[in-house]
Amino acid sequence: MRRAFAIGLLSALAAFGAAADTYPQRPITMVVPFAAGGPTDVIARIVAEPMSQVLGQQVVIENVTGAGGTTGITRASQASPDGYTIMMGHMGTHGAAPALFKGLKYDPAKSFDPIGLAAGTPIVIVAKKAMPAQDLKGFIEGLKSGGASINQAHAGVGSVSHSTGVLFDSIVGAKPTLVVYRGTGPALNDLMAGQVDFMTDQIVNVAPQIAGGTIKAYAIATPERSPSLPDVPTTKEAGLPDYEVSAWNAVFAPKGLPVDVRAKLVAALDAALKDPGAKRRILELGGTVPKDAEAGPDALQKLVEREVARWTPVLRSAVDANP
Ligand code: MLT
């Protein structure tokens, strides 16, 4: 009996090892939980190409939208942990969502095998070009007096634009009308067309339009100005020091990957972020490339745990204070 068990175990381990050795044998799906063209999609496509080169199989982007990104992340979390489904999550789906999204079907800190941080994405307060205020102070005054007549775009409860927008509204005491989109890519189109008034969004989505003058940027919510947007003041310079917030995008897999498969994905992302073209693109768009200490699965797991712990009380009190 023992002999048969040993043979069975050895053949299982051999098969397991063989699977990992030949991984990947077919294209890998990277679920992006927001609409194409938005910041999450942009970061995903920047890293997917060099990852494909390293892995020898195409990393194919699949946009699965809705519910502030939780539809796509839930679906990806329930996929087989075989390395053929990964996802691009972020500070919203894996940090803010538990505080704001009732009945979340995954636990950011337990339902995934973290692969690694892909990019830091500072938050910018942007408005339609026709917005009359010339500075953040004037914009906030108009926002408070305008009340519900002002429309604020976001990508669904718990998304980055929603959570950072709710925080902004709470700090300044504004009550705009929230307008939901399947991503801030489509929201930006409406902002450029003047169909929606403002939003708080990730720099990698809005930097080209700010530079091109098709939308207004009142401030960036980081301690220092962005080298990509040198004329945009920080929130501190603009008189709103309490509003300092930055987002991030990161690659996850469903929980339970074979160890060697996970190692290959971690190495592929690491190589992608060292690819000169990918690094340049992220930096050009105002994003930041992870420092060594921020890279890899262990650092990402700790980041998720910190972010959930940080955002839950902040957002719950923001909503309570400004229902
Ligand atoms: C997007 O990719 O559309 C954004 O990440 C949505 C959001 O989280 O605001």
Automatic annotation (TrEMBL):
Signal sequence segment: 1-20
Keyword annotations: Signal
Keyword Signal included in the entry's annotation: yes
Xref: InterPro entries: BUG, Bug_dom1
Pfam families tied to this protein: TctC
Keyword ATP-binding among record annotations: no
SUPFAM superfamilies documented for this protein: Periplasmic binding protein-like II (SSF53850)
PANTHER family given in the database record: BLR1237 PROTEIN, TRICARBOXYLATE-BINDING PROTEIN
Similarity section: Belongs to the UPF0065 (bug) family.
Name the record gives this protein: Tripartite tricarboxylate transporter substrate binding protein BugD
